[in-house]
Amino acid sequence: MRGNTAKLTYLYLKAIVDAVFDSNGDEKLVELRSSAIKAVYVQSLAYFKEGFLACIIEDLFEKKAQFINGAAAKQEIKEILKPSVPHYDYNSLIPTSIYHVDEEELLLWSLVSPCTKLMDCAVERYKELFIKILPEQAALIGIKK
């Protein structure tokens, strides 16, 4: 596995502790949240294995864990666990879920882009996310809006 996963593991353990203490003694809710957090952790480790930047993976994990620990129902958690995929409105790509995580969408574009030719609006969305999430790196390689 590439990269140091120590911070991710710390974030995972903190999220599990938060799930226990923020569930007001509701054991079923603790189990739902803990299981969902573990699923996001496993996916995050897979992103590490692919060689993605730790800062993006850690931000993704933290945001998903916060959503999960704020959820009160199984259906809400199922929605949070869905990948952050934008909706194509025949003009542009836009997030549709209140649980959308830009960092996750950027990683998904990074996985898809080598495998296929992206539509112009997909390239623009990918570029927009890259600039938003990694502004210094974007400036270094000359990517501008």
Features:
145 residues; mainly alpha; 2 domains; two-stranded antiparallel ribbon; 7 helices; globular
**SSE order:** HHHHEEHHH
- The side-by-side strand order for the widest beta sheet comes to 1-2
Q: Tell me the structural class.
A: mainly alpha
Number of helices: 7
* Percentage of residues in helical conformation: 55-70%
Strand content: under 5%
Mean pLDDT: 94
Determine the N-to-C terminus distance.
Answer: 34 Å
Tell me the radius of gyration: 16 Å
- Integer tally of domains: 2
Poorly predicted ranges (pLDDT <50, ≥5 residues)? Answer: none
Give the biggest sheet.
2 strands, antiparallel
Apparent shape:
globular
The number of strands is 2
Characterize the structure shown:
- There is one protein chain.
- The chain has 145 residues and is mainly alpha-helical.
- It has 2 domains: 1-81, no CATH class; 83-145, no CATH class.
- It has helices at 6-21, 27-50, 54-70, 74-81, 102-112, 120-133, 135-140, and strands spanning 87-88, 93-94.
- Strands 1-2 form a two-stranded antiparallel sheet.
- It is globular.
- The termini are far apart.
- The mean pLDDT is 94.
Please outline what is shown here.
The protein is mostly helical.
Furnish the topology, listing elements before pairings:
Blueprint: H1 6-21, H2 27-50, H3 54-70, H4 74-81, E1 87-88, E2 93-94, H5 102-112, H6 120-133, H7 135-140
Antiparallel strand pairs: 1-2
Helix pairs in contact: 1-2, 1-3, 2-3, 2-4, 3-5, 5-6
